[in-house]
User: Fold ABC transporter from Streptomyces longispororuber.
Amino acid sequence: MPTTVDTAENPPGGRSAARTLTRLWPYVRPVRARLFTAALVAILASCTGLVFPLVLKWMVDGPVADGDTAGVWLGALLLLGLGVAEALLFGFRRWLVARPLAGVEASMRADLYRHLQRVPVAFHDRWASGQLLSRGTTDLMLVRLFLAFPLTFMVVNGATILVGVALLLAQDWTLGLVLLAPVVPLVVLLAYFEGRFAAVARRAQDQVGDLTTVVEESVLGIRIIKGFGRHRSQARAFRELSRTLRGTELAKARLLAAIWGVITTLPELAIGAALVLGSVRVADGDLSAGTLVAFLSTALALRWPVESLGFLLAMSQEAATATERYFEVMDAARETDPETGEARVEGAGGGIRFEGVSFRYPDAPDDEPPVLDRIDLHVRPGETMALVGATGSGKTTLTALVPRLHEVSGGRITLDGQDIAALPRERVRELVSVAFEEPTLFSASVGENVLMGAGADAGQPELERALAVAQADFVHRLPQGVDTQVGEQGLSLSGGQRQRLALARAVVGRPRFLVLDDPLSALDVHTEALVEAALRRVLADTTALVVAHRPSTVLLADRVALLSGGRVAAVGTHQELLRSNAEYAWLMSGSAVADGTAGHAADGTAGGTIRGATDSTAGHAAGSGTGTAADGTAGGAER
Ligand SMILES: Nc1ncnc2c1ncn2[C@@H]1O[C@H](COP(=O)(O)OP(=O)(O)OP(=O)(O)O)[C@@H](O)[C@H]1O
Assistant:
């Protein structure tokens, strides 16, 4: 899992917030009618608020001045009615937008998830999972909030301000101009603020992603952290990151406070000036008291729409950053399949054939030699080929090329004579089944995890057969048998148990081709022997490529290919390579050394000797009390 976040490749800015936000249109389009209606309702509600001052003016200059009590009651009832209407209209607006916007958020999230399934594995190698998580959660929530609130209220408040200003100018244009005086400095300040806030908002959202990554890794790696007593240093790293985030959030708050201060103070000063000027004019008899009350009430009613602009802009800016981050992922190219293509390669023959296959990881430095360099290898139909090589020699990489988890950089791979690059990926993955050394189980039942490897029509018989092949009968002793929930949110299984389920998943669909990356590494010798025996039956009618580190796994294969320096250094049977290839003999004798039979390994009798060695180890294990595995209760022993 990647641990670093390369946000440098995605610099903020470039586009304006408004242009970035227009990218949301395809998602908003289906609900546009509701959004527009909601905006109109909100404008109506907001303008209802502006009628209050006019009623007040009528009350002050009319019934109040004339001492008409009935008129005052009528005015009060009118004000109450207006208040109720305003509240009902705002409630109606909320009802209009809530459901469709939850839908917009859900569909954006679904698209993101679908996209993440379809981008190449190399994309996931490059991106930290926390960054992806935060884009799928926090960022999408910010986008929904923007559509629900700032988007509407920018329009509503804008319209209210325009209507309000028109009313002010109509009531008294001199006082109106006094109130409009702060507009120019405010616009300049808001433009400056937007630029500054955009940069800080981006930094904060990226830091949330980093923090999510650290939390996720700490949870997944809790055993390592505890085992190595690293909880303090891990906590320190977390604290530092969260302190950085806190600093960025405070910087955001400071910017917001500054702009809020300016947005509040300038209009207040203008209202104060209008009040003084208006009072003087009322005293001079130039202006009626009712007009001044109405004027000031209108000005005060406009305070909220003006003051809210600051945080509406801030929320819009955060939403623009969130949208930018969302589309950075959505813009990553998906795996594409050829529209049509001639997959058959003349003369390629059956089985798996590698022809001049080269591979280099996309992010590898240019001066680094390729991981795989012109590999030629033929796994004949029905044959099992073991892949042996030193650590880091490229075995896993080579196996990942067969199901097209990575694309070859040069050369080609054919399956039964069909070039995999010209086949749809889905077809390739139907033909090829895989099991990796690191067996991943999903939060689902045992049965669902295993049947993932088969077509939709596979059922109980196929499941039972696969479990038998993988010697995974321990599942029947789990609390709910094959229905027991496993994975992150279920029962914890041992490494060996998980490997056996992963193996069952690989064989359940009776694949034409099988790619196994050291699938037996976590099994004790007894279980390994049992799985091998069952696997031998599966391998008999499958074409398989099996990464092997141990002689016992190599012995499952008909032939062995030795990978060295990015090339296939030798191909032959285990016995042939032991005799003819010093590197192979050395690699294989590594295990034998541990068993004290290295001397025999080198003289060509290693096959039998190594087997004997593992058997004797097994005998020892049984004698030392771990032999319960042999009587089929291995699961219990491993737990
Ligand atoms: N995702 C990746 N991005 C860049 N380089 C990688 C990536 N995965 C592996 N490598 C590099 O490719 C080389 C081959 O790795 P690979 O995992 O294929 O070796 P291996 O033979 O399977 O090793 P082992 O026996 O230890 O499992 C290594 O040098 C490794 O550092």
